[in-house]
Amino acid sequence: MSGICAGRVVIVTGAGNGLGRAYALGLAAEGARVVVNDLGVGTHGEAGVTEGAADRVVAEIRALGGTAVANYADVSDWEAARHIVAAALDAFGELHAVVNNAGFVRDRMFVSCTPEEWDAVLRVHLRGHFCTSRHAVDYWRSRLKAGHAVDARIINTSSGAGLQGSLGQSAYSTAKGGIATLTLVQAAELARYGVTANGLVPNARTRMTQTAFAAEMNRMEGNFDLYAPDNTAPLVAWLCSAASAGITGQLFELKGGRICVAQGWVDGPAQDKGARWTAAEIGPVIEQLVAARTGPKPVYGAG
Questions:
Q1: Which distant-in-sequence residues (6+ apart) come within 8 Å of 284 by Cβ?
Q2: Where are the domains of the chain?
Q3: Which residue in the list 23, 72, 172, 227 is annotated as catalytic?
Q4: DSSP string, 42-57
Q5: 145 catalytic, yes or no?
Q6: What angle in degrees, to the nearest 10, is found between the helix axes of 170-190 and 115-122?
Q7: Which is catalytic among the residues 76, 133, 158, 159?
């Protein structure tokens, strides 16, 4: 198939449903050969809930004339993630992009969150992003050392919860905030190897958001399905393509037809005394600085 990703090989993790499925289908429609990775778990990580989802997406892609293979490895398992990259190389002989999308939530107020829930969420999101990307980078570095040109992409998935926090989602927000920062570091460190890293902040109807925000997630603007997962797929295809080579270290928020580039943490108002502050004088200065800064987005659910 022809398209902006013709000739590219892309891994999409968590691609059996929702956004991942939309990305896989969109990439295939743009000519990419796709590794559809999905472990088959539920929205809280329950095993076997969506068993066979990766195969179903592969069948959809092939029925539309695209090329894809299924993979069922756990992205957060170091050796299993190695096999995800190997699946791309075995099937297609090369790899150009990794779209880290796999994840689940364990909604819980901070005072009720258990260590097991905390670890499970950070493992699938943060460790999952690390393991799959790290094995891909090992491959790309080896290609570069062997004298081959590398034009590769890492696409990470953060969240509004990661950029501004969300009530009842302390673990998820922490993981997604870490992914945003990871993206910045990857972009800075991997440019020398021909690898760009960018992040997504999608607003879409998925199994996770449908449970928590059902009324909003089904909202239409006229005939436009504002939260359809397909809305984000063209951005992912472009970021995976050769056309995006000049863009790295960015986080893109997409809602409906609106694309926004996040600005992240920037220096705000400051006051320099030129000497050590005393504890007694700091209070009024802090009040002035906080009053002068641009107000942040509120934490989701905080009003």
A1: none
A2: 9-261
A3: 172
A4: -TT--TTTTTTHHHHH
A5: no
A6: 30
A7: 159
Question: Where would I find the H helices in the chain?
Answer: 18-29, 53-63, 78-92, 115-122, 128-145, 160-164, 170-190, 207-212, 214-217, 233-240, 279-292
- Residue labelled with tokens 């491959």: 139
* Catalytic position from the list 72, 166, 170, 176: 176
Alpha carbon distance 126, 283 (integer Å) = 37
What are 218-253's pLDDT values in tens digits? 655 678 788 899 999 999 999 999 999 999 999 999
Nearest to residue 98, comparing CAs of 28, 197, 185? Answer: 197
pTM recorded for the entire structure: 0.89
Annotated catalytic, 172? yes
What is the percent of the chain with per-residue pLDDT over 70, rounded to a whole number? Answer: 90
Does residue 214 carry a pLDDT above 50?
Answer: yes
Residue type, 138: D
- Let me know if domain 9-261 sits in CATH 1.20.120.1630: no
- What integer is the mean pLDDT of 201-210? 69
- The arithmetic mean of pLDDT across residues 97-118, rounded, is 91
Q: Which pair of tokens denotes residue 148?
A: 């081959």
